[in-house]
Every structure is written in C-alpha cells, then in structure tokens.
C-alpha cells in the first residue's frame, strides 16, 4: 500500500525538527515507518551522545527493534500509560490535519499510543499533504469477521482488497495477528464521521483515520513547515 513518498531528505528534516520537542524526562511514543525511523535514529543519537533521558514506547516490532539498536530505553503502556508525546509518520494528511495511517499495518498500536499521549506529532514529507484525504484506508480485521466487515464497508461505499505480503504468500498479518483490508472511499470529505461509522463495525479492530493530530511537521528538502490543530 506504500507509495507517494517524498525524498529521504524531506522525511529526515520533518523528523529531526519534530524531535526538538522532546526533552529530558519525557516518555515518547515511537511510531512506525521510514519517516519515523529518522526520528528514532535521531533520538537514539541524542540519548547515546548527549545523555538525553527519555523512555520510548514502540508501536511495532519494527520500531521496538530499531529503538533498541539505537540505544533508546524502552517502557510499556502498562508501566507508563501516560505519554508526553508521540511522534509518528502518516500516509496522507489533509488541510484540517486529519490523517490516514497504516501503510505499515501498525495503525492499531499507533492509534493506542497516539491517544495515550498529551501531544501527537505527525511527521511527513511534502508529497503526503493534500486538501482532501483520498487514499485507501487501512483496516485491521479479526480474520473470523472478515466477510461481515467487508459487507459493512461496502454499505458505506468502500471497495476493499485484502493486503498481501511480500516475502510470504497470502495476506499480511499484523503484529496483533489480524488481517489488513485496504478500503477505497474516494475523496473523504468527512473523515471524522467516517471514522465513527467504521469504529462501530464488529470485528473491525481499528482503522487508519486519525483525527487526533496535535501538530504536523511537513518536511521539504530545504525547510520544514509546522501546522497546529485549530482548537
Ligand atoms: O502508518 C504507518 C505505519 O502503519 C506509517 O507511519 C505510514 O505508513 C508512513 O510510513 P512512511 O514514513 O514509511 O512513509
């Protein structure tokens, strides 16, 4: 489902600028994906070289492994249920800072972590910023409920495909042991309303529409723009 990615430089610029919000003593949600990887590596350097004292809560096996490799001490949501900040990438962000996530199939844990944080900071490159969300929405589904979920999504106008793996035949299985559907809704003019409808479907574990971003850092090759949610 990954595409539309900008340059590594643009991703790195957004990630490193957002990391300036992280200070001593913070518990930090660590998202998943190639943009967040720049943030994890940057924070790791700050921990190892400058003695920054933070603890990270990873959102996937991948970000856990990278954080350990980079020297970031980890904690869990059980031990640290209230995070100071969560930093994470996204697949698309609209002008009102609604977000589609889940290109890496990690959106369930990412949403839990982002909702546990006082501040949810999204980092993207410029190619992902748009007026209106119009990408397929990743949907994590308990395999037992797949047919019901597909039927309910189709009633909402969605067209679903089961996400297939690479390096493995058959469906992608999430870190939680579930399947991922990618569901096309065309232009999503009312993301918050769609989010509520999706959340009501039994067996649908979590969907990739996030309406809780506090700030979005948009990276370009030579600058970073910061947008804050209007309260
Ligand atoms: O939501 C995500 C993973 O579930 C990622 O944050 C999103 O797919 C962006 O990834 P990348 O920075 O590699 O483009």
From TrEMBL:
Record keywords: Isomerase
GO biological process: D-ribose metabolic process; pentose-phosphate shunt, non-oxidative branch
The keyword Isomerase is assigned to this record: yes
Binding, substrate: 32-35, 88-91, 101-104, 128
Family matches, as Gene3D superfamilies: 3.30.70.260, 3.40.50.1360
Residues at the active site: 110 (proton acceptor)
Domain of life: Archaea
GO cellular component: cytosol
Gene Ontology terms for molecular function: ribose-5-phosphate isomerase activity
EC number(s) reported in the record: 5.3.1.6
Pathway: Carbohydrate degradation; pentose phosphate pathway; D-ribose 5-phosphate from D-ribulose 5-phosphate (non-oxidative stage): step 1/1
Catalyzed chemical reaction(s): aldehydo-D-ribose 5-phosphate = D-ribulose 5-phosphate
Family membership noted in the UniProt record: Belongs to the ribose 5-phosphate isomerase family.
NCBIfam families: PRK00702.1, rpiA
Subunit structure as annotated in this protein's UniProt entry: Homotetramer. Homodimer.
Protein role: Catalyzes the reversible conversion of ribose-5-phosphate to ribulose 5-phosphate.
Protein name, UniProt field: Ribose-5-phosphate isomerase A
Organism for this UniProt entry: Methanooceanicella nereidis
Gene: rpiA
